[in-house]
Amino acid sequence: MIAGKPIITSKNTPWNNLETHNAGYNVVLTPQAIAKAIEDSANLNYRDYLQKVTSVRTYAEISINREEIKQQYLKLFK
Predict the structure, then answer these.
(1) Which phi and psi (to 5°) does residue 68 adopt?
(2) CA-to-CA distance for 69 and 40, rounded, in angstroms?
(3) H helix intervals, 1-78
(4) What is the pLDDT of residues 19-59, one digit of tens each?
(5) Element containing residue 26 per DSSP (H, E)
(6) CA–CA gap between residue 59 and residue 63 (Å, rounded)
(7) Would the pTM of this model clear 0.90, i.e. be above it?
């Protein structure tokens, strides 16, 4: 996500609602669901792909609390 590329992930990650944010795909872990997400990604036209790239960057920025992560690392290494 930080690289600005739409992602395909399971519904078991902290990064949910990817479809709602046009940032990628959250799928159930079945071969059919994974294949459909890959196929949908491969079939994006260039304009739609660029929209997803912009959306995933925005989603990453609002989803990743850098200060919280920093505090967790400080706590871990104390």
Answers:
(1) -65, -45
(2) 32
(3) 31-42, 46-63, 66-77
(4) 999 999 999 999 999 999 999 999 999 999 999 999 999 99
(5) strand 24-27
(6) 6
(7) no
